[in-house]
# Entry
Amino acid sequence: MLLAMLALAPLTPARAAEQVAGTCGEPGAPSGPRIEVVVTGARKVAGNMTITLYGSRPEGFLARNGKLARQRVPMRGTQAEACFAVSAPGVYAVAVYHDENNDHDFNRTLLGMPAEGYGFSNDAPTVIGLPSFESVRFQVGPEGARVPIRLRY
# Structure
C-alpha cells in the first residue's frame, strides 16, 4: 500500500531530477541548454578566472560541495569566457574570482577583505558580506542563457 502511494505521489523538489552540468563540448556533457559566462574587468593578465556554476538549491550556493561545475580559464586578456552545458532549463547561479596567483584559492587580506577580483551573476551587490542566492539566481530556458559578470576588486 505504501509503495503504491509513493508511486502515485507527485514529484517533490527533493525527488525531482537532479541538475547536472559540464563543460560545453566535453565528452559526457549534458545535451541540454548552454550557459555562456562572460567575465570582464580583470586588472591584469595573470593566473586564471575560476568560474563556478551552482544549481537551484539555495543551500548549495557557495557551499564547499554545492557546485554543479567549475572551470578554470587561463587569462589571455582582461576578459574570460566559459560555457557550461546543463541537463535542463531551470534556476542557476554563477560565482567567479580572478585567481591572479593561480593557487586555486580565493585569497584574502589580513583583515579578511578580498585580495583578488570577484563577481556574481546579476552583478549582485556585496556591500556587507556575500550576496544571497535570491540576488544571484537566474532562469535558463531551453535556448540557454548568456551571463555577463563584471569583476570587483
Summary: Residues 60 and 66 are 4 Å apart (CA to CA). The helical segments are 2-8, 133-136. Residues 1-16 have pLDDT under 50 and may be disordered.
